[in-house]
Write a structure and sequence with these properties.
The chain is mainly alpha-helical. It has helices at about 5-20, 25-40, 50-70, 75-115, 135-150, 160-170, 180-190, 195-230, 240-270, 285-295, 295-310, 315-335, 340-360, 360-365, 370-390, 395-405, 410-420, 420-440, 450-470.
């Protein structure tokens, strides 16, 4: 059930109509949340419910077992991690592994034949072709963080399975985040909290702005990016590809952050607070800052549950770099079962390593105007790295990047011919929003001032009108595939 669908709007109206009546008592509230969330999730395919239930029961039982049998805590933690990572491996990466094994077998057979040995054709391992459950990567990470925190002694496990599944399966963030930690959400779910007028107004603004970013910006530019990457022959204009990658940068940002905003708004209307997941990443002055602003809930998850347990920055520079590269490569693979995603993670690891060794952002920042140059450099390099994320293959990524640096073939007229004014306009609007935040112009009108209180309803009304009148063709959220 997509947020940008009539089915979800009807679902949301029914859910929130009954919410004030059913939220007072814990068991009633948790039961209602679980039933509604399972209905929401099962709308795609009811069979997916078995997987999230199985994954949740493993972690729910493992956490209780750690308290009851403390000497077996490590074994129970391993059981939890194997159960969650195992489900990811089977549903998300099994065919990826099979394809690479088949390619390796084919390569060995070809090499043997080339050496003069009569090699029999190797039988390929058949693909399994399992459907990828929506949101699998998100809720498995969320569930794993629960058992890891219990193991570390940072959290006491809940004994009520309804309480646990209300946390794990809460529908606003279930399929595309943000990844909410149990230590943050379980205590909120334990107490009835009635949202006040200020919280409901914040919720409306988040929801409307999220829909605007998704329906007006991301969905408008999506078709131009799709046309560019699916064309029979890639465009040879350097300027065209810089524009396309700028469109894609804001497509994926507005698509994903739009979902996060809607999820946060829905939760706030219910009386719960989800963490911010995006904080204007394209005004970053370094790649370390970029990863502190982009998909924050995932970045901090990898920091706390992968990078630091590996040793973090302890153990010398070599060990620290190895930990960084391991974390970023796993992060790339988390995004998809393709080598292009691994390459995307590797490129960002290289950029972060280069920053650590040269400290170029700090050095550039000491030069007059250097901080602004750093922002432009980070943004430009980020556009290049997004090619690996969007391209269908290494060969396509290499061709696009090579064209982006063929400055002798700018061919600006191609951009005017192939890019719609509306797509350029909505992206320019989002770029101005980034500049507005970067320049600190929002401080000119304090959020609690009388002027701001008058302008906010007007802006919300304009965004709603834009969502109705200027929306692009409805598209599924990009991160559903992860």
């Amino acid at each position: 059930m997509l947020f940008n669908s009539l089915e979800f709007i009807l679902f949301g109206l029914i859910f929130f109509a009954a919410w004030p009546l059913l939220r007072r008592r814990n068991n009633t509230r948790w039961t209602y949340l679980v039933i509604a969330s399972f209905f929401f999730y099962g709308w795609w395919d009811w069979r997916f419910l078995f997987l999230i239930t199985f994954s949740g029961l493993i972690d729910y039982g493992a956490a209780l077992g750690m308290v009851r049998w403390p000497k077996r805590r490590t074994l129970l933690l391993v059981l939890s991690i194997v159960g969650n990572v195992g489900s990811l491996a089977v549903f998300k990466y099994l065919d990826f592994v099979i394809r690479n094994i088949n390619a390796l077998i084919e390569g060995v057979s070809w090499a043997s034949g080339g050496a003069g040995v009569a090699a029999a054709p190797a039988a390929a391992i058949p693909l399994v072709n399992l459907a990828l459950p929506v949101g699998l990567s998100f809720y498995t990470f969320q569930s794993m963080s629960y058992t890891i925190d219990v193991y570390r002694g940072h959290l006491q496990p809940t004994r009520n399975p309804l309480h646990f599944f209300a946390y794990l399966a809460m529908f606003p963030q279930l399929v595309a985040g943000p990844i909410v930690r149990a230590a943050d959400l379980l205590p909120q779910l334990r107490h009835y909290k009635r949202s006040d007028e200020a919280a409901r107004w914040d919720a409306i603004r988040l929801i409307v702005y999220g829909y605007f970013k998704k329906a007006v910006v991301a969905d408008t530019v999506a078709r131009f990016v799709e046309q560019a990457f699916t064309a029979e022959q890639l465009n040879s204009s350097c300027a065209y590809w810089w524009v396309i990658m700028t469109l894609f940068a804001f497509q994926i940002y507005c698509d994903f952050s739009g979902y996060s905003d809607i999820a946060r708004g829905l939760a706030r209307w219910m009386g719960y607070d989800f963490p911010m997941n995006f904080n204007h990443p394209y005004i970053s002055r370094s790649f370390r800052e970029f990863w502190g602003r982009w998909h924050i809930s995932l970045s901090t998850w990898f920091r706390d549950y992968v990078y630091i347990p590996l040793g973090g920055s302890r153990g010398g520079r070599g060990r620290s770099e190895m930990n960084l590269w391991t974390t970023m490569l796993i992060s790339g693979l988390w995004h998809g079962a393709q080598w292009t995603f691994v390459a995307w993670g590797a490129v960002h690891a290289a950029l972060l390593s280069a920053e650590r060794m040269t400290k170029w952002p700090q050095r550039l920042g000491r030069i007059p105007g250097g901080k602004h140059v750093a922002v432009l450099m980070v943004f430009a390099i980020t556009l290049v790295t997004w090619v690996f994320f969007r391209a269908d293959s290494f060969s396509q990524a290499a061709a696009v990047i090579a064209t982006m640096f063929r400055f002798d073939r700018l061919e600006v007229h191609v951009v005017r011919e192939l890019i719609h004014v509306k797509a350029a306009g909505v992206v320019a609007l989002m770029m101005l929003r980034q500049v507005w935040v970067y320049a600190g112009l929002g401080n000119l009108v304090p959020a609690r001032s009388r002027v701001a209180k008058c302008l906010q309803p007007v802006m919300v009304a304009l965004l709603i009108a834009a969502c109705v009148l200027l929306r692009g063709p409805g598209e599924a959220f990009i991160y559903f595939q992860f």
